[in-house]
Design goal:
Elements: E1 3-11, H1 15-26, E2 31-34, H2 61-76, E3 80-82, E4 85-91, E5 94-99, E6 105-114, E7 118-120, E8 133-135, H3 136-146, E9 154-158, H4 162-173, E10 177-182, H5 189-197, H6 203-218, E11 222-225, E12 227-233, E13 240-245, E14 258-261, E15 264-268, E16 271-273, H7 276-280, E17 285-288, E18 293-296, E19 309-311, H8 321-338, H9 344-372, E20 387-389, E21 394-395, H10 396-405, H11 409-416, H12 429-440, H13 461-464
Helix pairs in contact: 1-2, 1-8, 4-6, 5-9, 8-9, 10-11, 10-12
């Protein structure tokens, strides 16, 4: 296997990874960045597709231009930027990467920063596999990269800052969002007072929130609090959405169901950190559902418990793009300090404003905590015939039957093949853990995930096989 060497390998080309590249290269480190997508920017800074360009001000231009500026700075840094390249295995600070269409190769790094971002929290409910049910991230990708908005009557169901921001953004794209369902409670005067107390350093976030809410009011889009999606209905695609009042645990209240016509249901109940590579690196974790679930443990320079490995951005706990940029820079300063490119005094001075901004964002997050706390009912919406594992088409009843026999997710996996498909458990593993917790007691955070295995991302067999692998004719076409 070919080998490359670098001072710092950055995995992930979103806000955290790009900011880290700029900071580390500026400190004199040799830097290599890999990202599995064809273009850099991650989800929030995703750039338009080939042949598209932004000509209007406002949404979505602002995020695109913020991303474009960060990408341009990374390109000027002389770092090696590799798109279409996935990190699939890690041992220490040695990482195996695969570029599309090429054979796997190794990267020997003195330090590794893992900044893989996050993905939409999967929510399993009857009808969630119908055409027309789309995640917020998926719909955002269509709108940003292809200028496509599916459907004529869109219902948004979710929670958190996204529940106001994204429907308003969709309206600015020209989408007909007709109803917004927020699972959390409406703000009380004490919540607003707490938010205002945390406003210092967060004026941009407050302005955005006010502007998004004003957009929904101006467009007469109903925003209903303490409502959760119960099911999607339709013959071949979504035709209606059924929602109900939700209690404090996000469990539907009997007798409160309402049905609304829709051809698209956008689901946005927050995000889950992409922790696959961090788990392969044997990093320590804690659990915080409000930050996406599994959250890697880090020190003041964002180093993990695995020697030489740091983590930044939403992949280390979902906190948004502003936090991700500053965390990427902070982690890069930590790497420069560890490798002797910066003195402790210089690194501390550069880090001081970053730490101040991160603390202000954390205060703001704490002020919003009551409004956006994730309830366990989000994992209790499935009926027995609801598909849980989309890749292997495993129903909830089959999962329940296997869980009755064992509280070990690896055993459930072997009995049902759940989480063995292309998504590698990203869509179904948390649902299975919640089922185990309900049946055997405890919480999701107390249960171990299935054993992590390489490759961390789906990869062609031909990319990792070599001449030492003997196929004994199984993969040979006769004649």
């Amino acid at each position: 296997m070919a080998r490359e060497a670098t001072d710092l390998l950055v995995v992930g080309g979103g806000p955290a990874g790009l900011a880290a590249v700029v900071e580390a290269a500026g400190a004199g480190l040799s830097v290599t960045l890999v990202d599995e997508r064809p273009t850099l920017g991650g989800q929030i800074f995703k750039q338009p597709g080939l042949g598209f360009r932004i000509t209007e001000p406002g949404e979505p231009a602002r995020d695109v231009r913020r991303g474009r500026a960060l990408i341009a700075a990374a390109e000027r840094s002389r770092a090696t930027l590799l798109a279409n390249t996935s990190a699939v295995a890690i041992r220490g600070t040695s990482v195996v990467v695969v570029t599309d269409g090429e054979h796997a190769r190794g990267v020997e790094a003195r330090r590794v920063l893992i900044a893989p971002g996050a993905y939409d929290r999967p929510v399993v409910f009857p009808g969630w596999t119908l055409p027309g049910v789309v995640t917020a991230g998926g719909l955002q990708s269509l709108a940003k990269t292809q200028a496509v908005v599916p459907g004529q009557r869109i219902v948004f169901a979710g929670s958190g800052p996204l529940a106001v921001a994204f429907p308003a953004q969709l309206r600015s794209y020209g989408a007909n969002v007709t109803l917004v369902l927020e699972a959390g409670p409406s703000p009380r005067p004490r919540d607003i007072a707490g938010i205002l107390r945390a406003a210092r350093g967060n004026s941009a976030l407050l302005r955005d929130t006010v502007a998004y809410r004003a957009r929904l009011l101006r467009d007469r889009v109903a925003l209903r609090y303490r409502r959760i999606v119960v099911r999607a209905e339709g013959d071949g695609r979504v035709e209606a959405v059924v929602h109900a009042a939700a209690d404090a645990g996000w469990r539907p209240v009997p007798g409160t169901e309402e049905r609304v016509a829709a051809d698209t249901l956008c689901v946005g109940y927050g995000f889950v950190p992409s922790v696959e590579l961090l788990r392969l690196a044997d990093c320590a974790f804690r659990y915080d559902e409000d930050l996406g679930g599994p959250v890697v443990v880090r020190d003041e320079w964002l180093r993990t418990s695995a020697p030489g490995i740091a983590a930044a951005g939403d992949g280390a706990g979902v906190a948004g793009s502003y936090v991700a940029v500053d965390e990427g820079r902070l982690a890069a300063l930590g790497a420069a300090l560890d490798l002797g490119f910066l003195s402790h005094e210089a690194a501390a001075a550069d880090a001081e404003p970053l730490r101040a901004r991160l603390e202000s964002k954390e205060r703001f997050r704490r002020a919003l905590r009551r409004l956006h706390r994730v309830g366990p009912g989000i994992y209790e919406l499935a009926s027995p015939d609801t598909v849980v594992c989309r890749c292997e088409e495993i129903m909830s009843a089959q999962v329940e039957e296997a869980v009755a026999a064992s509280a070990d997710i690896s055993v459930v996996k072997m009995l049902t093949r759940v989480s063995m498909g292309l998504c590698q458990g990203r869509n179904c593993q948390r649902q299975v853990l919640a089922t185990i917790a309900r049946r055997h007691g405890g919480t999701i955070g107390e249960l171990p995930l299935a054993t992590p295995r390489a490759p961390a991302r789906p990869v062609a067999i031909g990319a990792v096989a070599d001449a030492s692998i003997e196929d004994e004719g199984f993969f040979t076409v006769d004649g």
